[in-house]
Amino acid sequence: MKQPTVFITISKVIQHERQMSLKEVCLEDLRLHNEDLKEFVELQTSLPDFGIWQDAVVNWGTLYERRFKWLEEYFHKT
After folding, report:
1. Cβ neighbours of 26 (radius 10 Å)
2. Do 1 and 74 form a contact (C-beta atoms < 8 A)?
3. Which of 31, 39, 41, 45 has the fewest CB atoms lying closer than 10 Å?
């Protein structure tokens, strides 16, 4: 599975600066992502109605979560 170039570039910088393995960097990124996603979902429940954009706003958390799910599965297997 091909990984996004931006993700790899940022991960390599963090890996070098913090002296971590690539796997450790990726797992830390996933941990931070999950914290941010949890906060987003909590905030989402207090949002006003966005009219015709409501579905896009409500579904954003699900789409965001799916983008990183493959990373989590990949790095927890290795």
Report:
1. 23
2. yes
3. 45
What is the tens place of the pLDDT at every residue in 16-60?
Answer: 899 998 888 888 888 887 888 788 778 877 888 889 988 877 777
Question: Which amino acid is it at 46?
Answer: S
Residue whose token pair is 């600066």: 17
Note if the pTM is more than 0.90. Answer: no
One-letter amino acid of 30:
L
C-alpha span between 49 and 52 (Å, rounded): 9
The single residue listed with the structure tokens 């990183």 is 68
- The dihedral sign for the CA sequence 56, 57, 62, 64: positive
Neighbours of 57 (CB within 10 A): 14
Residue ranges per domain, the chain?
Answer: 5-77
